[in-house]
């Protein structure tokens, strides 16, 4: 079906006018005969507007052809006027043509008159007629003859009658009301039956054609011997009027004839003359006795406007002679016809429906309306109106023909269809009204882009999904119809965070808009991705819109937790524990990590195997405590199995075997702890300590006296110690850390020996950046410490950062991370992050102040803790101090180790670090002690401290302390200070 074969016609503005053009042609003209040229007659030059074309509004039959380019009208097939316009004096072929281009159009009403040619001869209904004429018929008696019929019209119709020669009769021709010619024989000479009983007369009917054509009939007359008198009508001619709405049986007229004869010769009977037309005998009937004419059938003014009746009267006598009377019946018009409406749309597919595009401009032509009424006078005058919607109106084209045009632009999405009503009403009394409903459907234009139901879609997908899994469906609606409203979806390819095209991650069903995965997502590598989907229609040109889809990958518990401390080797680790560890002793703090997130990464710790039932673990912090004091019966090696479990719905577990090796080292009470804490966590830490302080506040009040006694005892104890142990540094006692942060180490793995043990140098390095640094130094002197095994560890820390890694074990043979000694467990397991700090100046009374110092190197995690042990002799690794000796046989610095007695020294290598500030800038010069029975010895110690401020040169301060011991235990302290500005 071609809905839009003439689409462009509907988009033109009706700014033209309507013209009526008349042409004529003759019947029997050969096909192809030119009738007229519309473009020439209407002054339309196709060369000026080559896109101008002509079209029938409603296709006519094939009798008329029209050339589309210039409107040339030709005969399509042989015309037969008598077939086209039977009984019509004028034969017209009418139709409507539109001449249009892109800019304008013109409506043309064409009337073609088919003119008659004399192609038919007159013809009588009978070839012969028998007529009885009484011999005593009076002169001028008239005897009607059959009427000749000619199918031609006008001058080609019957014009005259002729009869063959006779002395008794002549023919007279008269014109009837309908214009037909009729003939009568008139007696001009008395008849004498005895002289001549029979007459034969040839009657000829001739038309007015050139050349003329004729038809003949023969009249046979027999002379009868008749009465003396014949019936005589009161009126030889009558004229009456009859309303077309008269019912059947209505009286039309009544005739009366008088016969002076007596008896049956005077009794008159009536009837129609033999040979009367069938339309007369069909519509009318006459009473044989009364002569009353009544209506046998209904009459219609629009079909026939008048009838001519020939009535004869005869007596009942022998040889009766009849007489005739002519009666004319005129039909009166009444308003019995309602107006007729004919609608011819420009584009339609069914009756009663017209189509117009929504892109049509104002004043666009839609359809042609023609009205007619078969009545005459005011009854035939028609008034036409259009109702239904203000978007359309009627414009008169010509006569009773109108055009439906638009009054504004149209929108199919707002109103897809209009139901209009055409009302035609005549001016009769009462008026007749005709109502015709008409539908105008708006055809679609692609003027709406698809619209998504959401501007963006948030979709969650579990990681480890199966490729091809359904995720979501995007929905877009297009208000257009047909292919303009058919929506197809496509993926706008973009780059994923890893640089891969999005088309390798997801796919979009072009018809349903369903989105599917093409690969399995991994939460740990890709947590969120965003892409766009486009919805396009099939219009021309196509319109489209986009929406964003944000995929959030939901974590699945697919990663096992793993231990980060202690470092495991073959899923096991060895941890030293003092032989005198008491109940509640913190033996180890294990830490673990899980690559998952949320509850899947929430870890808890458990002890699965503990044969001696010695240990308990805090499931949240991983701190492993002794439940009771160690006994010799427990053995030298205590083995437990620790598990870490994540919080997933189906939890995953990792196991570690921990071997606690009992050492001969005593549990040390004094420890050095460096606690790094982010400023962001300050409030939280403060709240924790506040709760602790509040809980133990009451106890502190009760123990105030005990604390005073302990303080005095500690002071006395310091005086009794040797010079190397006598208050080199002093501070408030170290509080036991209760921080439950993930990276706080409380020093359970650092062990201090007594004074008689060998002394080791202690190294440490800064790894924090913008954190506060809390420094606490012990009241007791520094002592050597070892870690894990043997005596090769001078320092043990608990950091977890992988930056600024530093090994604190030293074999003197290069990097300790390469397992170059038999005590190494693994290179990676012994890597630690160390922290350098700069203590503040000592007070005059031998107590050091805790300070807050801005650190200088890399960032440490919040809440990290370190445990540090020192030897009796503080060391440094800078090159400007005189008493640091370089071992010429290696690239390591050599520190002096002092034994009992003067001059008895041993050298021990230590690891070298190139970064400035690896050690705090103080050094030991000498230490002398007196034995029993020896002379009095003077013990002196000198240390150097270097300080610097931003933008200033470094300052080096040198402190010297001396103590003189006499037999009476008299002690003298001298302190000097030298400050020198240095620049390294």
From TrEMBL:
Q: Molecular function terms in GO for this entry? A: calcium ion binding
- Show the segment(s) annotated as Disordered: 802-826, 900-967
Q: Does the keyword Signal apply?
A: yes
Q: How does it sit in the membrane?
A: Single-pass type I membrane protein
**Any Pfam family the entry gives:** Cadherin
What the entry lists under SUPFAM superfamilies is as follows:
Cadherin-like
Gene Ontology biological-process entries: anatomical structure morphogenesis; homophilic cell adhesion via plasma membrane adhesion molecules
Q: Where is the composition biased (Basic and acidic residues)?
A: 925-934
Which CDD domains does the entry mention?
A: Cadherin_repeat
Q: Does the keyword Hydrolase apply?
A: no
Give a Gene Ontology cellular component term annotated to this protein. dendrite
Keywords for this protein? Calcium, Cell adhesion, Cell membrane, Cell projection, Glycoprotein, Membrane, Phosphoprotein, Postsynaptic cell membrane, Repeat, Signal, Synapse, Transmembrane, Transmembrane helix
Q: Which residues cross the membrane?
A: 688-716
Its assembly, as annotated, is: The N-terminal extracellular domain forms homophilic interactions; these interactions activate p38 MAPK via TAOK2 and trigger endocytosis. Interacts with CDH2; this interaction may lead to CDH2 cointernalization. Interacts with CDH11. Interacts with TAOK2.
Function in brief? Calcium-dependent cell-adhesion protein. May play a role in activity-induced synaptic reorganization underlying long term memory. Could be involved in CDH2 internalization through TAOK2/p38 MAPK pathway. In hippocampal neurons, may play a role in the down-regulation of dendritic spines, maybe through its action on CDH2 endocytosis.
Q: What is this protein called?
A: Protocadherin-8
- Report the source organism: Phoxinus phoxinus
């Amino acid at each position: 079906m071609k809905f839009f074969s003439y689409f462009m016609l509907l988009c033109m503005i009706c700014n033209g006018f309507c013209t009526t053009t008349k042409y004529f042609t003759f019947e029997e003209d050969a096909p192809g005969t030119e009738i007229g040229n519309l473009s020439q007659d209407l002054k339309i030059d196709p060369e000026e507007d080559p896109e101008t074309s002509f079209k029938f509004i409603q296709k006519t039959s094939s009798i008329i052809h029209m050339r589309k380019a210039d409107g040339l009208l030709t005969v399509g097939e042989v015309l037969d006027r008598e077939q086209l316009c039977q009984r019509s004096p004028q034969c017209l072929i009418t139709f409507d043509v539109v001449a249009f281009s892109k800019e304008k159009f013109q409506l043309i009403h064409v009337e073609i008159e088919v003119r008659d040619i004399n192609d038919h001869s007159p013809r009588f209904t009978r070839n012969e007629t028998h007529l009885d004429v009484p011999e005593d018929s009076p002169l001028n008696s008239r005897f009607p003859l059959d009427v000749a019929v000619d199918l031609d019209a006008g001058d080609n119709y019957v014009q005259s009658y002729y009869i063959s020669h006779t002395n008794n009769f002549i023919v007279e021709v008269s014109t009837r009301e309908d214009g037909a010619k009729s003939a009568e024989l008139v007696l001009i000479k008395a008849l004498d039956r005895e002289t001549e009983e029979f007459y034969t007369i040839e009657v000829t009917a001739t038309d007015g054609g050139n050349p003329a054509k004729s038809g003949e009939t023969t009249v046979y007359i027999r002379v009868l011997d008749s009465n003396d008198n014949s019936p005589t009508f009161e009126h030889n001619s009558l004229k009456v009027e009859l309303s077309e709405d008269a019912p059947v049986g209505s009286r039309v007229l009544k005739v009366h004839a008088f016969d002076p004869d007596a008896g049956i010769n005077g009794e008159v009977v009536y009837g129609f003359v033999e040979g009367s037309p069938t339309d007369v005998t069909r519509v009318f009937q006459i009473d044989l006795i009364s002569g009353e004419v009544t209506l046998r059938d209904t009459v219609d003014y629009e079909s026939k406007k008048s009838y001519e009746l020939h009535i004869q009267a005869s007596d009942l006598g022998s040889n009766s002679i009849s007489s005739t009377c002519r009666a004319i019946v005129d039909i009166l018009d009444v308003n019995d016809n309602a107006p007729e409406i004919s609608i011819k749309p420009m584009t339609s597919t069914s009756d009663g429906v017209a189509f117009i595009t929504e892109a049509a401009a104002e004043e666009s032509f839609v359809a042609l309306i023609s009205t007619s009424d078969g009545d005459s006078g005011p009854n035939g005058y028609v008034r036409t109106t259009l109702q239904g919607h203000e978007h359309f109106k009627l414009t008169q084209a010509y006569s009773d023909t109108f055009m439906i045009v638009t009054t504004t632009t149209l929108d199919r999405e707002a109103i897809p269809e209009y139901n209009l009503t055409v009302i035609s009403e005549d001016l009769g009394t009462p008026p007749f009204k005709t109502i015709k409903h008409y539908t105008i459907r708006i055809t679609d234009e692609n003027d709406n882009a698809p619209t998504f139901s959401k501007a963006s879609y948030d979709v969650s997908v579990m990681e480890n999904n199966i490729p091809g899994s359904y995720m979501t469906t995007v929905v877009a609606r297009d208000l257009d119809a047909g292919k303009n409203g058919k929506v197809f979806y496509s993926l706008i390819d973009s780059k994923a965070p890893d640089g891969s095209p999005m088309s390798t991650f997801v796919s979009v069903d072009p018809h349903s808009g369903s989105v599917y995965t093409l690969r399995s997502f991994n939460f740990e590598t890709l947590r969120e991705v965003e892409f766009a989907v486009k919805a396009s229609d099939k219009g021309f040109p196509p319109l489209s819109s986009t929406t964003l889809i944000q995929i959030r990958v939901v974590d699945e518990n697919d990663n096992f937790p793993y231990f980060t401390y202690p470092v495991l080797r073959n899923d096991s680790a060895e941890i030293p524990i003092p032989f005198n560890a008491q109940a509640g002793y913190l033996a180890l703090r294990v830490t673990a990590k899980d690559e998952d997130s949320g509850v899947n990464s929430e870890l808890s710790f458990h002890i699965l195997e503990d044969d001696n039932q010695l240990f308990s673990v805090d499931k949240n912090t991983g701190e492993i405590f002794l439940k009771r004091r160690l006994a010799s019966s427990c053995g030298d090696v205590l083995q437990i199995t620790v598990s870490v479990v994540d919080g997933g719905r189906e939890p995953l577990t990792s196991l570690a075997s921990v071997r606690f090796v009992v050492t001969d080292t005593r549990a040390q009470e004094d420890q050095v702890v460096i606690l790094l804490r982010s400023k962001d966590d300050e409030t939280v830490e403060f709240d924790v300590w506040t709760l602790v302080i509040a809980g133990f506040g009451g106890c502190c009040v009760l123990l105030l006296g005990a604390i005073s006694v302990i303080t005095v005892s500690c002071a006395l104890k310091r005086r009794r110690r040797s010079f190397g142990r006598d208050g080199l540094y002093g501070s408030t006692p170290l509080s036991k850390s209760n921080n439950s942060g993930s990276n706080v180490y409380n020093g359970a793995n650092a062990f201090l020996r007594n004074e008689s043990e060998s002394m080791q140098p202690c190294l440490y390095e800064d790894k924090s950046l913008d954190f506060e640094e809390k420094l606490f130094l012990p009241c007791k002197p520094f002592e050597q410490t070892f870690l894990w095994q043997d005596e090769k560890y001078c320092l043990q820390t608990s950091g977890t950062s992988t930056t600024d890694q530093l090994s604190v074990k030293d074999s003197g043979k290069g990097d300790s991370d390469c397992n170059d000694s038999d005590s190494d467990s693994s290179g990676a397991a012994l890597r630690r992050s160390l922290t350098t700090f700069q203590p503040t100046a000592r007070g005059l009374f031998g107590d050091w102040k805790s300070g807050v110092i801005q650190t200088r190197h890399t960032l440490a995690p919040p809440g990290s803790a370190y445990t540090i042990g020192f030897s009796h002799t503080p060391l440094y690794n800078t090159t400007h101090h005189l008493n640091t000796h370089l071992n010429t046989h290696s690239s390591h610095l050599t520190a002096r180790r002092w034994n009992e007695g003067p001059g008895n020294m041993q050298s021990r290598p230590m690891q070298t670090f190139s970064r400035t500030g690896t050690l705090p800038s103080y050094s030991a010069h000498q230490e002398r002690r007196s034995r029993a029975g020896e002379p009095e010895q003077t013990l002196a110690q000198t240390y150097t401290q270097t300080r610097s401020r931003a933008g200033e040169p470094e300052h080096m301060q040198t402190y010297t302390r001396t103590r003189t011991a006499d037999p009476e235990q008299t002690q003298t302290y001298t302190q000097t200070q030298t400050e020198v500005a240095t620049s390294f």
